[in-house]
Amino acid sequence: MAVKNVLEAVRDTLFEAMGRDQRVMVLGEDVGRHGGVFNATQGLYEAFGEDRVVDTPLAESSIVGIAIGAAFGGLLPVAEIQFADFIHPAVDQIINEAAKIRYRSNGDFGCPIVIRVPYGGGVHGGLYHSQSVEALFFSTPGLKIVAPTTPADVKGLLLAAIYDPDPVIFLEHKASYRAIKGEYPEGEFVLPIGPADVKRAGTDLTVVSYGMTMHYALQAAEELSREEGIEAEVIDLRTLLPLDRRTIVDSVKKTGKLLVVHEDNLTGGVGAEVAATVADEAFMYLDAPIRRLAALDVPSTPYHPALERAMLPSKAQVKEAILELARY
């Protein structure tokens, strides 16, 4: 089994999918000859040509709209939004068109598109290159939202997303592109969209996360296991919508405590729904108040490194929160 980083996993999975199936195509800004701003599509243009790797104008509404039309024509489009911050002009196409097509057609039509979205801070991108946008779409029935955190999960979930009959927003944390490495399965490897993954078993408390903060949670849990004997169970959501409520609730019933960590703003985030689910379904099992740790409620990630660090959750903060909750 090869070892790759997250960015290589995205690129190689696209190569595999396009090599196997002529219906798979890629479109977006600079995805062709340039290979994408992060090189996630590097080499695809040369391998598959301009009919299947389509450079588009800087117009996100048209990128998603064209993808929807291509899907109606029998293709399997993978649309790239260059930065999550640029997705807002396409919100109407995503929420009012793609997400509602199956419902409005009484099940006669699906919309098999994937929208790849590089998101998140920690890369000193400033105001318009660092946003987390998952909460914007989290309350939209008809959409699926996937947020893999390891190269293996990237491959398994991206292949599943490409062949899903309904629209999938595929979140890729920019800070993980080159920083996170891991095993990359060779050959056919598909993971189901929906189930969370228990990345670390534990008995003292449950930590639920996704994206880069999931890696912080794992690191903090390992350190506290060695230093304090605290055994935290770490759940990687992987899929945000639909939310795997069963795995979360079962874990909390075992541990009695819950910490939810994510990089998006605290108010109205995915963590609020996780907390509400546990309050509804596992309240009598709780031995401590539910704790949430997230980014500060500010308009966007600051450019200055010191301010960026102050705004985003860190491994140290996750470790402190686990320790405090374990001692409650």
Structure description:
The protein has 328 residues and is α/β, with parallel strands linked by helices. Helix content is 38%, strand content 20%. The chain has helices at residues 6-20, 44-48, 60-72, 91-97, 101-104, 134-137, 151-162, 176-179, 212-228, 245-255, 270-281, 305-311, 315-326, and strands at 2-5, 24-28, 53-55, 76-80, 114-119, 144-146, 168-173, 181-184, 197-200, 205-209, 232-236, 239-241, 258-265, 291-295. The chain has a 7-stranded mixed β-sheet, with helices on both faces. A 5-stranded mixed β-sheet has the order 9-11-10-13-14, sandwiched between helices. Strand 13 (258-265), helix 11 (270-281) and strand 14 form a beta-alpha-beta unit. Helix 1 (6-20) runs parallel beside helix 7, helix 9 (212-228) packs across helix 13 (315-326) and helix 10 (245-255) packs across helix 11 (270-281).
